[in-house]
Specification:
Blueprint: H1 11-16, H2 29-35, H3 39-63, H4 66-73, H5 79-100, H6 111-132, H7 138-160, H8 166-187, H9 193-215, H10 221-231, H11 233-246, H12 253-281, H13 283-288, H14 293-305, H15 313-329
Helix pairs in contact: 3-12, 4-12, 4-14, 5-6, 5-10, 5-11, 5-12, 6-9, 6-10, 7-8, 7-9, 7-14, 8-15, 9-12, 10-12
Length: 332
């Protein structure tokens, strides 16, 4: 069922028979039946939206471990090695799944969007954020995640023509301000090379999310990210070979564990559930769930990296969750 489908295919007939005042005062059984969604249809749609929100939330949870996983991987590998190897490993899994299930090649009209996904979330965002984490802490890098929902919603509005409501935008801006203010205040927020890399990552990731969410309406989410990974496999294989020959490599439990999570958790499985969730509930609403990602990242930073959790974190988390609740209820 498409997101904008009504409960009945003939609802326009009921609308055309209303009185000139547009109040729908007729009380015939036929009019009420056409004008009001049936209970099974409403229940099915509610279940679809609930499942979509859950999948998108799982994607956010997976993404919240990306920066800590990258910090672990950088303990024993260079930045180019981390980015290229994570993509190669994820492509092996994705390509194997595409081959096992004998998935047909996407239609020609979808390849441009797949290329945007590949450039944005397979190469661009991982590379730019990994380079930024060489000089920035994970809490400082979380600033980019605080801005990502807004840029994704804006990119979606331009690309798909969806126009979220004023309430939606106000809640989004408030949530973004809370996240940015919290992260910047804790890390100092001095602009530098790392900040420029993070803002560039923000733009390319928003484009990749938007195209991926749009494509997930035409093919399963795992195929979207799968074809994107396979598309750039020649580049990532060559890049991995060059990086391994030029950068030092020290295999430790942290570096290997971080790399494996980036490849299979963040790069593949996280993107699979994320794109499916976006397709079900809409790009602009799914993107707002990412307002919770910076705070989740801070929690993982405490547990996995030994960073100290700021006292203001619980209050900021509650405020962000309130903004998420408003955006989920606001109609586009």
């Amino acid at each position: 069922m498409k997101d904008n489908d009504s409960a009945t295919a003939t609802a326009t007939i009921a609308v055309s028979t209303r009185d000139t005042g547009g109040q729908g005062t007729t009380t015939s059984a036929a009019s009420v039946g056409l004008d009001t969604p049936t209970a099974p249809a409403a229940t099915a749609r509610g279940a679809l939206l609930g499942r979509g929100a859950l999948l998108a939330a799982l994607g956010v949870a997976a993404f919240s471990l990306t920066f800590p996983g990258t910090a672990w991987a950088l303990e024993g590998m260079g930045p180019w090695t981390v980015v290229m190897l994570r993509s190669v490993l994820a492509a092996v899994v994705a390509g194997g799944a595409l081959a096992v299930f004998r998935v047909r090649l996407p239609e020609r009209r979808h390849w441009a969007g797949i290329a945007v996904v590949a450039g944005g979330v397979v190469l661009g965002f991982p590379l730019l954020t990994t380079l930024a984490l060489q000089t920035s802490t994970t809490s400082h890098a979380a600033v980019v995640v605080g801005l990502l929902p807004l840029t994704t919603a804006a990119c979606s509005a331009v690309r798909t023509g969806v126009r979220p409501s004023r309430t939606f935008w106000i809640a989004s801006l408030v949530g973004a301000v809370i996240v940015i203010g919290f992260a910047v205040q804790q890390s100092g927020g001095a602009p530098g090379r790392g900040d420029l890399l993070l803002f560039a990552a923000l733009l390319v990731c928003a484009a990749g999310y938007t195209e991926g969410g749009r494509l997930a309406r035409h093919m399963p989410g795992w195929q979207v990210i799968g074809w994107a990974l396979v598309l750039v496999l020649p580049v990532t294989v060559a890049g991995a070979a060059l990086a391994l020959s030029a950068e030092p490599l020290r295999l430790t439990a942290h570096s290997v564990g971080g790399l494996l999570w980036l490849a299979f958790g963040s790069q593949f499985l996280g993107m699979v559930v994320w794109y499916r969730g976006m397709a079900a509930i809409g790009i602009h609403k799914a993107s707002q769930l990412q307002l919770a990602q910076p705070l989740l990242t801070l929690i993982w930073s405490v547990l996995l990296l030994g960073e100290r959790l700021p006292p203001a974190a619980p209050a900021a988390a509650l405020a962000v969750l309130a903004c998420i609740a408003v955006t989920q209820r606001a109609r586009g």
